[in-house]
Amino acid sequence: MLNNPLKTLTKKEWLLWLVSLTVVILSNLATNDLDLLTLISALLGVTALIFAAKGNVWAQFLMIIFCILYGIISFRFHYWGEMITYLGMTLPMAAWSAITWLRNPSEENENEVAIRTLNKKHIIGLTISTVIVTGIFYYILAWLDTPNIMFSTLSIVTSFIAASLTMLRSSYYAVGYAANDIVLIVLWVLASLENPAYIPVVVNFAIFLLNDMYGFVSWKKRELERV
């Protein structure tokens, strides 16, 4: 699974990846105040999502780097919930996912992770842990006087669910991240109303949403072929 992931991309995936990169670059260059950190993190994020759609473990390695950069971006706007979520939760969960993906390659294609169907035990455990994590993080965000706390809390919920489903190797991981993308689009639209420099971040997550939707379709197709 540590082979060159670019060799596994289809023509359609190459097109999606390159178009996504182009839109991200142009939207960031169109602003008067170019933020290289935002641009680099977005390019890494888009690439990670394309590799994730293929079930390739390199997606998790790139996600670790993305979490660090996005945490810094969130810190600058005092989005403590985003910073804590990505550095304290999504990053270690991405590292854990990398380990589980490496240990569970697909029998049909060793470059892809094996997909697992969730059972009742997984669903109950995920529900209970989500409630606990949400409660803990909400009080932390309230204590930090986090802007737009309701959306920040919702972002934590969707991020935790998405990261958990990624570790569990479920095709619904992409649905979790798509939901998180929608929440983040709202969060950064609110931030952009105060500072237009954050408009590229909104565009970045809109592109992430498109790629996550493709990821779900890709995993579901592979899951159906396995049956």
From TrEMBL:
Q: Where in the cell is it found?
A: Cell membrane
Q: What is this protein called?
A: Nicotinamide riboside transporter PnuC
Can you tell me where the transmembrane regions are? 14-30, 36-53, 58-77, 83-102, 123-141, 147-165, 172-191, 197-217
Q: Which InterPro entries match?
A: NMN_transpt_PnuC (IPR006419)
Pfam families xrefs: NMN_transporter
Q: Which organism is it from?
A: Anaerobutyricum hallii
Q: Which UniProt keywords apply?
A: Cell membrane, Membrane, Transmembrane, Transmembrane helix, Transport
- What's this protein's family per the entry? Belongs to the nicotinamide ribonucleoside (NR) uptake permease (TC 4.B.1) family.
GO cellular component terms, alphabetically, are: plasma membrane
Molecular function terms from GO:
nicotinamide riboside transmembrane transporter activity
Q: How does it sit in the membrane?
A: Multi-pass membrane protein
